[in-house]
Write a structure and sequence with these properties.
Elements: H1 4-9, E1 17-22, H2 33-47, E2 51-56, H3 80-88, E3 92-100, E4 103-104, H4 106-117, E5 134-140, H5 146-160, E6 169-172, H6 193-215, H7 226-230
Helix pairs in contact: 2-6
């Protein structure tokens, strides 16, 4: 017979780490409404043993560009190489940011570009570096665009090698048009059942899938190893013979 304690133990994730990147436009210590939604997701993870950490991207001197270290391409400084090590150490990555003009913030886009800059690097199995990790996103704002922004982030993450679980996004926008932001008094954001449900579902799905991948030692390294393709192996997908 399964006891309550053993059932709870089945949903412990003490071997997982998660990184939230807050792509607000506001430097610390200014209030970030996006941070309010991050806090809800992170609290669920920490309750289940996940070691969480956060980066507010705008607080760091992240250079613009699509190379792993932009100091090698004309920039005087670049914080990304050190931040990339934190990204690589996390089993779960959550990109979180605001909506501006119906789209992701410029900071969100820069972070995605810099994630992309390292996407050709390989892991120890010869796969692209982000394989074996899961990704999700949180979106806040007071104008329409949650689904559009989430679609862009989640497509980008899976294209770079992240595995995306079901229901991997959550967001809050309030009424259409200008209005209060998530943490503003009377906004209804922190109490919104739809947002809270989606945030909880996203968080649990990230933990479940990250645990499955970690305990399976990642995505199997067959049919997806760059060096083998370059050596001529075609993994049952030969180039057409037009002779």
């Amino acid at each position: 017979m399964t006891t309550a304690n053993s059932a709870e133990d089945a949903y412990r994730f003490d071997d997982l780490t998660a990184l939230f990147i807050n792509c607000t436009l506001k430097p610390s210590p200014q209030q970030s409404h996006t941070q309010g939604l991050i806090d809800k997701s992170a609290a669920i993870m920490m309750e289940r043993g996940v070691a969480t950490s956060e980066i507010r991207a705008v607080d760091h001197d992240i250079a613009t560009g699509i190379y792993p270290d932009m100091t090698e391409h004309g920039f005087a400084s670049d914080a990304w190489p050190a931040l990339y090590e934190q990204v690589l150490a996390a089993d779960i990555l959550v990109l979180a940011g605001p909506i501006w003009l119906g789209d992701n913030s410029s900071v969100t886009k820069k972070v995605i570009e810099r994630l992309y800059s390292c996407s050709a690097l390989l892991n120890s199995a010869g796969q692209y570096a982000y394989y074996g990790r899961v990704g999700g996103c949180l979106i806040t704002g007071n104008e329409d665009g949650v689904k559009h922004c989430a679609m862009n982030v989640l497509y980008s993450l899976q294209h770079l090698g992240y595995t995306i679980p079901p229901q991997a996004d959550a967001g809050w926008i309030g009424p259409a048009g200008p209005g209060p932001s998530y943490l503003d008094p009377g906004s209804g954001g922190p109490e919104n059942d739809f947002t809270n449900r989606n945030t909880a579902f996203m968080t649990w799905n990230l933990m479940h899938l990250a645990a499955m991948l970690k305990r399976a030692k990642g995505v199997p390294a067959h049919g997806n190893v760059r060096s083998e393709w370059d050596a001529g192996c075609r993994f049952d997908a030969p180039n057409p013979d037009y002779r």
